[in-house]
Design goal:
It contains 15 helices and no strands. The protein has about 280 residues and is mainly α.
Length: about 280
Amino acid sequence: MNKALRIGGQGLLLVFTVFFVASCGIFGDKGKALNPAEEAAAAARHAPPNPAASLQAGPPDQVAIYTSLGTAYLQNGHPRAAVRELQEALAQPGKHGDTYNVLGLAYQALGQGKLASESFRHALAEDPGNPQFHNNYGAFLLEQGDYAAAIQELRKAVADPLYGTPEFAWTNLAVAYHKLKEEQKALAAIEKALYFKPGYPPALLLWAQMDWQEGNLQNAFAHLQGVLAQEPDNAEALLLAGQIAKRQGQVARAREFWERCVNASPYSAAGKQAQSELLGLGTTP
């Protein structure tokens, strides 16, 4: 698994899912409707003055408005537009921990490692106890290959009993330990992730990959079934399922999994590898 898990409940999206480089105008391309979050933020920014409402509700939180809009752009795959809105948020008076956190994710999506690191550290300077910030910075360090530093940050995230999505940080910890070949610690972290969220697909996928590497094909495929039952188009799971089927001599089944992988995500790393595997099989049914 090569995608670290990101921001809390807004998650794999940004995790997991987490990122595509693209740019657009502040309010999207011509003819493209705004999503609800963008519409709300845009309306708040451009609404006419209403002194009576202001007396009742207080001044609008401009930092929160711009940060919300930046987050919406990032979640919809427009990190450059996100950066513009987040920089506007930083220009407003107030607290900027959340802004810096999302800005770090946006810079990370753009491949701006130095700026991403600076943003994450600014977020933690403003709110050093925030487990979500520690997870996101840890996920960034994991992506950069600094596994020991990632573990330090992720450990701080899972240490907070009020952290709302501990399965994110536990799975990231498992990846870090796996990269360091500390397999027992990796497995313990996977079990923690599954304790907090049974059947959590990223944890099951990592477990399947570890079993595959150790030659435990039956266990690996069992974990993949758990992933594909929830995410039928998970490209990495489909790729690995095909590899297991081929290893077991089930060529037709391998072809089926790889064709599904290509159809689900043709331009991803998994999709491209599945295309290569299919070419290796030739045209024989």
